[in-house]
Task: structure prediction
Amino acid sequence: MITVNFNKITIKPGFTILDIGCGPGRHVSALYSYKKINAIGADLNLSDLKDGVKRLEYHDSLGAHCGGTWAFTTSDITCLPFKDNTFDLVICSEVMEHIPNHQKAASEILRVLKPGHNLVVSVPRFWPERLCWALSDEYFNANQGHIRIYKKNELVSLIEKHGATHIMSHHAHSIHSPYWWLKCFVGPTREDSFSVNLYKRFLTWDILQKPWITRFLDKLLNPLMGKSLVLYFKK
Result:
């Protein structure tokens, strides 16, 4: 599931790109398909990083590297092990809502980004996320520890305070919102719900097959109920 719309930003051969909080490497994999891209995924979850390595090794076995390189590393977003102005693009997708010291996190992701280049930050959208919290007292802990819900202006102000300019935004994954509402309604840690598991199968099918009808519905409904808020900045 790719949250960032790469068509909205400049990606050139030779770019070195950081995906901080990369999880199992979904955006790293997408970036790796670009010509001569050096894609680096960083996360604190070692299990996710191992899955990312397997994913990219599989891409290499298919000859899908396009002349680029990839790497994964354990890293804390509040203390990144990279020099100033290292990256041509930084992605921070569905991470900031987990971070207690989000001021320090914002400072770090801007520190390692080159001036004049793009930062993309995505977080859960306010009202779909607020409904999840209302439906389940367990949700914010079960979903790997969400500690805050951002309003758009709040997050824009946070990032701009540390040296970037907001240039555009959009919402994503509208057809995923009902899945999380349903999951919260029955209990976010339950694995035996027929309705939740059926919807999950539908989402998996959609991600793999990308049928035109669900792509159309997702795009149509994103302004109303997109699960993610995606913000684009320039340092």
Remarks:
- Residues 46-61 form the longest helix (16 residues).
